[in-house]
Specification:
A hairpin with a 5-residue loop joins strand 20 and strand 21. This protein has 324 residues and is mainly beta. It is built from no helices and 30 strands. The strands form seven sheets. It has a six-stranded antiparallel sheet with strand order 14-15-16-17-18-19, with no helix packed on it. Strands 1-30-29-28 form a four-stranded antiparallel sheet, with no helix packed on it. Pfam families: ANAPC4_WD40, WD40. It comes from Aquamicrobium segne. Keywords: Repeat, WD repeat. This is WD40 repeat domain-containing protein.
């Protein structure tokens, strides 16, 4: 049976991640808590809006209401990387060579490792930013579609249009597809080689959590009574194919998904705090946590693939050890 090391905090957990194999939990007030031979804490932003786990550099990037971007390193060290005056930071992402991107208002910015910052202005608000898996290229989620920029050059941006408000953005790990979350209960995608559209609809709620399976074979998503797992193995992605539905619970809603780093398995978190693990091949389920005070908002696997850090909107956090 899995074992759980709980950590009850006071506030909405924005991110639960492992830094140097130590679980860290980031709350909406900008405080960062870690289980490192006891409960320890530090402070980053004054009011937190967004986070991104920079696995390549083993750090957490945070942005908040104070207009500042911080890097949180293992052991609780906090470094201010950039600031945008009094404007709220609405999205952050980490990229290659120590670069990071952030969004505020109608602009996206890329900060390079040497501290130089480049701005990309847009006609409407920028809602999400993400780096492509190869090269210094960023994707921007905006109203009526997405825009692709080459951050290190002056190339012409690529405009990908689709009516509606696009709120988040992710590239497939192979760089062949781009997927956005939408204000409506749907995902939208583009095949980047030819611009073909991929409509992923039918969700009863907004999709707030996405996670790619190893090598990008599947994309797991929240927003339904089951985890909706879209197939991306073929050259046209999920077009014309039905998704898997894992961990179906008619009386609950999936609020968070986190794919296993090495196998086609997903940890699935629900609005009542329950956590399941489900295998794609045969839909087999294992109960990891019975429930709690709030909806699961963040989950992450450790590098050894045996522990899952989790957090909820009520602050009940912890670590599940699946090795028993």
């Amino acid at each position: 049976m899995p074992t759980i090391a709980p950590l009850d905090l006071d506030g909405h957990c924005m991110a639960a991640v492992f830094l140097a194999d130590v679980p860290h939990f980031v709350l909406a007030d900008g405080s960062i808590h870690r289980l490192d031979h006891g409960h320890k804490s530090t402070q980053a932003n004054d009011g937190l809006l967004c986070t991104f786990h920079d696995r390549a550099n083993d750090r957490l990037i945070t942005g908040g209401e104070d207009g500042k971007i911080f890097a949180v390193k293992p052991g609780g060290e906090v470094e201010e990387l950039a600031q945008a005056g009094r404007k709220w930071i609405t999205s952050v992402a980490a990229g290659p060579q120590g670069a990071l991107a952030y969004a505020t208002g109608r602009s996206a910015f890329v900060r390079f490792a040497d501290g130089k910052v480049k701005e990309f202005a847009h006609p409407r608000s920028v809602e999400g930013v993400s780096f492509a898996p190869k090269g210094m290229r960023i994707g921007v989620a905006r109203y009526n579609g997405a825009t692709l920029h080459f951050a290190a050059t002056e190339g012409t941006p690529v405009e990908l249009e689709w009516a509606g408000a696009h709120t988040g953005i992710t590239f497939s790990p192979d760089g062949n597809f781009l997927v956005t979350t939408m204000q409506e209960n749907a995902l939208h995608g583009w095949k980047l080689a030819d611009g073909k559209h991929m409509r992923m609809t039918g969700y009863p709620a907004k999709v707030k959590s996405l996670s790619w399976a190893p090598k990008g074979r599947w994309l797991a998503s929240s927003g339904a009574p089951a985890a909706i797992i879209w197939p991306f193995q073929g050259k046209d992605g999920p077009m014309g194919k039905a998704p898997l539905e894992l961990g179906t619970r008619g009386d609950a809603m999936v609020t968070c998904v986190s794919c296993h780093p090495g196998q086609d398995i997903a940890a699935i978190g629900y609005n009542d705090g329950m956590v399941l693990a489900a295998r794609f091949a045969d839909s087999r389920e294992v109960l990891l946590r019975r429930g709690g005070k709030g909806a699961i908002t963040s989950m992450a696997w450790d590098k050894k693939e045996r522990r899952i850090a989790f957090g909820s909107d009520a602050g009940d956090c912890g670590v599940i050890d699946i090795s028993g």
